[in-house]
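Hello,

Our lab assistant flagged a job as stuck in the queue for most of the afternoon. It eventually completed. Since we weren't sure the result was trustworthy after the delay, we are filing this so someone can double-check. Below is the sequence as submitted and the structure that was eventually returned. Let us know if re-running is recommended.
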Amino acid sequence: MKYSCFSVEIADGVAHLRFTRPDKFNSFTPEFWRELPDAVTEISENAKARVIVLSAEGKHFTAGMDISVFMSGALDTPPDNAHVAAEAFRHHVKALQGTFSALENARQPVLAAIQGGTIGAGVDLVSACDCRYASADAFFCVQETAIGMTADVGTFPRLAKIIPEGWARQMAYTAERIPAAKAKEIGLVNEVFDTPEALLDGVMEIAGKIAAHSPLAVTGCKQMINYARDHTTADTLDYIALWNAAMLRADDIKESYIAKSEKRDPAFDELKPVKKSL
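-- returned structure --
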């Protein structure tokens, strides 16, 4: 399927989703908010890849929300029935939130390769990814504060669980730019590469390592880490026990050892497509 804001290529178990509006700094148009969850869900539910990589063309990863979203009238509050309009607007925001939650809910790990600016809603997006990597010229900015609003599509429930709370607060309160080196220091990104080219090569190498492992084991890791983030240790230990009681696959364990002894790459079964309800 062809998308208006990004391209999708799948090879060697890696789905590469690349933002393709460099002339507009890959800002998020109304179409983007509909297309991204469709693309990610298609890959996830149909097990079309083992890893998803997000990258972008041009100088910046993304400038965040496109001006067209703000100018479309969606944010206007009519003088009459203001409370009714506010209730409807809440559902509009929840739909936008769902766009980035699709990344978190994907069965596959999602890796973000970030160059240049990641601004506003871009921080919401990368916060929903499993791992973030940056080139040396990258920077991050919770821009919403500077334009008179509170970020609302994912930054706050996720960012403060990725980096120290004090830094999440400082980024939000000041709307300052956090450079790549500082982002690595506080744990926002896993690694910083010298150039955008080295960044993409490095992230694709990491994606390849993930894709070489059992898809069932990898999706289990993602499920457990997300669950552990949001639950107590006791609840998470119980969930892990239940997960492995149901899904521990002896064939994958045997294959990994046999492949190692035979000095070859292991061959694992793919995840099964998710059956749609009738």
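-- support follow-up --
The delay was a queue issue, not a problem with the job. The result is valid. The longest strand covers residues 6-11. The domain at 215-261 is CATH 1.10.12.10 (Lyase 2-enoyl-coa Hydratase; Chain  A, domain 2).
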